C-alpha cells in the first residue's frame, strides 16, 4: 500500500520504488524523502527542519523528511496503522 500527496510533488516512478521497497521490507514503513532544493517556501523548509529535530529528540531516530506524504507499507501492517491515533498531520507524525 502506498500513499502519495495529490499535489503532484511525487514522481510516479518514486511511487513504484516505494512500493517495491515496502514489498522487500514487509514489516517496515518506507518513506520517500523529498529534495528540499530550489524554490521551497520558507514555511515548508522551516517546518520540516523543526519536525525532524523534534522527532530525533523524542525518538533518537533521524528521519530525512517527517512530512512526506509518500509512504509505503504492506497490508500486514494495516492493523497496526489503524491503531495509530491522530488526524491529518498528527497521524502522519504518529505513524513514524
UniProtKB/TrEMBL annotation:
Q: Report what the protein is called.
A: Dolichol-phosphate mannosyltransferase
- Recite the UniProt keywords alphabetically: Glycosyltransferase, Transferase
Question: What species does this protein belong to?
Answer: human gut metagenome
A molecular function annotated in GO for this UniProt entry is:
glycosyltransferase activity
